[in-house]
UniProtKB/TrEMBL annotation:
<dbReference type="GO" id="GO:0016791">
    <property type="term" value="F:phosphatase activity"/>
</dbReference>
<comment type="similarity">
    <text>Belongs to the phosphoglycerate mutase family.</text>
</comment>
<protein>
    <submittedName>
        <fullName>Phosphoglycerate mutase-like protein 4</fullName>
    </submittedName>
</protein>
<feature type="binding site">
    <location>
        <begin position="102"/>
        <end position="109"/>
    </location>
    <ligand>
        <name>substrate</name>
    </ligand>
</feature>
<dbReference type="InterPro" id="IPR001345">
    <property type="entry name" value="PG/BPGM_mutase_AS"/>
</dbReference>
<dbReference type="InterPro" id="IPR013078">
    <property type="entry name" value="His_Pase_superF_clade-1"/>
</dbReference>
<feature type="active site" description="Proton donor/acceptor">
    <location>
        <position position="178"/>
    </location>
</feature>
<dbReference type="Pfam" id="PF00300">
    <property type="entry name" value="His_Phos_1"/>
</dbReference>
<dbReference type="GO" id="GO:0005829">
    <property type="term" value="C:cytosol"/>
</dbReference>
<dbReference type="InterPro" id="IPR050275">
    <property type="entry name" value="PGM_Phosphatase"/>
</dbReference>
<feature type="active site" description="Tele-phosphohistidine intermediate">
    <location>
        <position position="103"/>
    </location>
</feature>
<dbReference type="InterPro" id="IPR029033">
    <property type="entry name" value="His_PPase_superfam"/>
</dbReference>
<feature type="binding site">
    <location>
        <position position="153"/>
    </location>
    <ligand>
        <name>substrate</name>
    </ligand>
</feature>
Length: 312
């Protein structure tokens, strides 16, 4: 019944006849994206304040409506990023807005196992988290590009977001990978002290130039790799809004660049959202950090490994 209702609407409502209730201006609404989101869930998201609250969910009634046109118009969500080459809204021409997102949960996150550069895919919870953050971002003004680490857990999260943002192509960049953790990769943190004492000691070191035995990176190397990558992305998309999906350790390095004199006290939860503004004068500003309001209805792993100093 729900899909029949949607097909009926797409056939009967013409975009040029849709107008904003307050301004009277035409509404640019994408029915194809609306149908695509319906394939994921039978709930439709009402507009919510940007990044401030969990979206209100409205169920499509399976009973006939007295006035189907007016009832549905109160529920549809305009999608300014749908099609065309419109300039990003609310982004100054001298900066780039980068929405930084950590990948969804993996089984190794749940088990406290160190991943590093090892390629671990999302678990079911991680896929649900990715759908939740994708729904959140689908209500953002136009997103121009989506970048991701080339590791599966980040790339799958990015692909889920891309499907909700007009089917953008995900650009993979290995410089967005997690820190390489050498001999610690593949073992749990609780057993690392016993099985790899030298690597474990290096991992916990306060020295930012301390590399990890077994080909691992230092924090300085991670910092240089990740911040240089973000600067390249910002320069390429000046005046635009871009999504970057990465990893806990990498995102903490970005925070260090944006706020060098203040450590982040927030854990970088799976699919948490941060917003950075990078100006053409190489100034970095944090507008939002480690926000997970979209997970309040979905749940998240509060005991999971990673996203803090132990990120991996």
């Amino acid at each position: 019944m729900e899909m029949t209702l949607l097909r009926t609407l797409t056939g009967s409502l013409k975009p040029e006849n849709l107008r904003h209730s307050q301004t009277g201006k035409p509404v640019n609404f994408c029915f194809s994206k609306y149908l695509q989101s319906a394939a994921i869930s039978k709930y439709i998201l009402r507009p919510a304040s940007r990044f401030n609250s969990v979206p209100h969910l409205t169920h499509i009634s399976s009973t006939p409506m007295a006035d189907s046109t007016s009832s549905v118009l109160s529920r549809v969500v305009p999608q300014p990023e749908c099609g065309g080459d419109a300039k990003s809204e609310n982004v100054s021409s001298n900066l780039t807005e980068i929405i930084v997102i950590r990948h969804g949960e993996t089984e190794w996150n749940a088990d406290g196992r160190i991943q590093g550069h090892l390629d671990v895919e999302l678990n079911d919870s991680g896929r649900q988290q990715a759908m939740a953050v994708a729904a959140r971002l689908s209500r953002e003004p136009r997103i121009s590009a989506i970048y991701s680490s080339d590791l599966k857990r980040a790339h799958e999260t990015a692909e889920t977001i891309a499907r909700s943002c007009g089917g953008l192509e995900v650009i993979k960049d290995p410089d967005l990978r997690e820190r390489h953790l050498g001999d610690l990769q593949g073992i749990s943190l609780r057993e690392a002290a016993q099985s790899q004492p030298m690597a474990y000691k290096a991992f916990l070191s306060d020295r930012s130039d301390q590399v990890i035995p077994g080909g691992g990176e230092s924090l300085d190397q991670l910092y240089q790799r990740c911040t240089s990558c973000l600067q390249r992305i910002a320069k390429k998309h000046r005046g635009k809004r871009v999504v970057v999906v990465s990893h806990g350790g990498a995102i903490r390095a970005l925070h260090r660049r944006a706020s060098p004199h203040r450590r982040s006290k927030s854990k970088i939860w799976n699919t948490s959202v941060g917003i950075l503004h990078l100006s053409d004068k190489d100034e970095w500003t944090i507008k939002l950090w480690a926000d997970i309001s979209h997970l309040n209805k979905t749940g998240f792993l509060d005991s999971g490994f990673g996203g803090d100093k132990t990120s991996g």
